[in-house]
Design a protein that fits this description.
Distance between the termini: 39 Å
Number of strands: 15
Strand order of the largest sheet: 12-11-10-9-13-14-15
Shape: elongated
Strand content: 25-35%
Largest sheet: 7 strands, mixed
Order of helices and strands: EHEEHEEHEEHEEHHHHHEHEEHEHEHEHH
Structural class: alpha/beta
Radius of gyration: 28 Å
């Protein structure tokens, strides 16, 4: 059919056009949706909207249709006949039916649309109530709620309209912290579905360890190095100075320690799932680290990462010299590398996601389109766009609107 042959649109009625909201409830089984619309078809109504949800085997099916006129239908029947027929059909299947008269389509959604993702472990009724009330307090309306995952955490997404994204975020962040749940607020729109670049910190983010502490254990100075590391991550020490001080303690170690440390590195639970899923969805993934290329290069190869950058331990005559070579990857350096990776990937900075846990990651988190503080220090949680405080790195996928079913489908995908 050519454009000139397309009839005028009638499926979206004006406010004065009579419509019927047909609601069906009951035990789900195959054929209910087809049966309802087959019943309605006898009355020549137009479908304006449909929504169906199945929860624990119970169906809620809603259909908004134009009301029939006395001249419509196979037998010239009216709205009263439609109501009687739908109720009779529902009763024959042990279903309940409710039909509500009205006019026009659904109320237009308000301007300012956001996705609010809530992660709970568990998600309590108290938390759900508080989050919903907080959304309402901003003037926002909850248009739809959808469960993204039931494990390893419960993740639900609220589609919200009528409130600015930043206003929602500023109200929900402190509420979430008080409730002990994680909440992410991102603007709705096509950009959420676009291919993205995800860049992660390594130590205590992609992996469970602090690499320099693994090296320090072999040098017998683990406690001393750990103390300096903690102070640096809290933002109490200049990172570059602290790095040089810690690396100096490693001087004299045999270079064979590099392989030993690589074997000791433990990926964070969910790390493989996160990277695998992102890659199979067409995302590009990179890491930036204040640690060392001797470890990040191995991780890049093992996980199939697109980008990796870190500091490099100097090795001379088979020994660590206690120095690093090249430019230092510090707080500002991580943000610069995020921009460099985005440029190489052809991804706008607004389409990047950064994940980190320490003060050294703050510039990167703030520069990204979405900055995620992962089991982070308080100063980082307060400054990031959102925080995840469960020990599963793949929960970040839910913040991107990726469901657990999609994660599992990616896991079984055959190349």
């Amino acid at each position: 059919m050519s454009a000139s042959q397309i009839p005028p649109a009638t499926a979206v009625p004006g406010d004065d056009v009579p419509t019927l909201l047909v609601k069906i409830f009951g035990k789900d089984r195959p054929g209910i949706t087809a049966g309802l619309f087959d019943t309605l078809a006898a009355y020549s109504v137009d479908v304006v909207d449909i929504e169906q949800v199945v929860t624990r085997g119970r169906i809620t099916l809603c259909a908004l249709v134009t009301a029939p006129s006395p001249a419509q239908g196979a037998t010239g029947s009216s709205e009263g006949d439609l109501r009687a027929t739908v109720h009779s059909w529902a009763e024959s299947l042990n279903l309940q039916a409710e039909i509500i008269s009205g006019r026009g389509d659904n109320r237009p959604r308000g301007t300012g649309r956001s996705h609010v993702t809530v992660l709970g472990h568990p998600l309590t009724a108290e938390s759900a109530a508080a989050i919903a009330a907080a959304i309402t307090s901003t003037g926002g309306n909850i248009d739809r709620i959808f469960r993204l995952a039931k494990y390893p955490v419960t993740a639900v997404e609220f589609a919200v309209s009528g409130a600015a994204t930043e206003a929602l975020r500023s109200v929900l962040a402190p509420e979430a912290a008080q409730l002990g749940v994680d909440v992410a607020v991102v603007a709705a729109g096509l950009q959420r579905r676009a291919q993205r670049l995800v860049v992660m910190d390594v130590d205590s983010t992609l992996i469970q360890d602090e690499v320099i502490e693994l090296f320090a254990a072999h040098a017998g100075c683990e406690a001393e190095v750990a103390e300096v590391t903690a102070a640096a991550m809290r933002g109490e020490l200049d990172f570059e100075q602290s790095l040089h001080a810690r690396v100096e303690l490693l001087g004299g170690l045999d270079a064979s320690v590099v392989e030993a440390v690589r074997k000791e590195v433990r990926l964070t639970p969910g790390a493989r799932t996160l990277v695998r899923t992102l890659k199979r969805l067409g995302y590009q993934v990179g890491v930036v680290s204040g640690g060392f290329t001797q470890v990040t290069d191995a991780l890049k190869e093992e996980l199939g990462l697109d980008f990796a950058s870190a500091n490099t331990l100097e090795i001379v005559d088979g020994k660590l010299t206690g120095r690093v070579t090249g430019a230092i990857v510090d707080r500002a350096g991580k943000a610069r590398l995020l921009r460099d990776f985005a440029q190489q990937a052809g991804v706008p900075l607004a389409q990047t996601v950064a994940i980190g846990d320490g003060a050294n990651d703050l510039d990167m988190l703030n520069a990204a389109g979405l900055g995620v503080a992962f089991n982070a220090k308080p100063v980082v949680r307060e400054a990031a766009h959102t925080a995840v405080n469960v020990p599963f790195l793949d929960t970040v996928l839910y913040l991107l609107g990726i469901t657990r079913d999609e994660v599992e489908a990616a896991a079984t995908h055959i190349e």
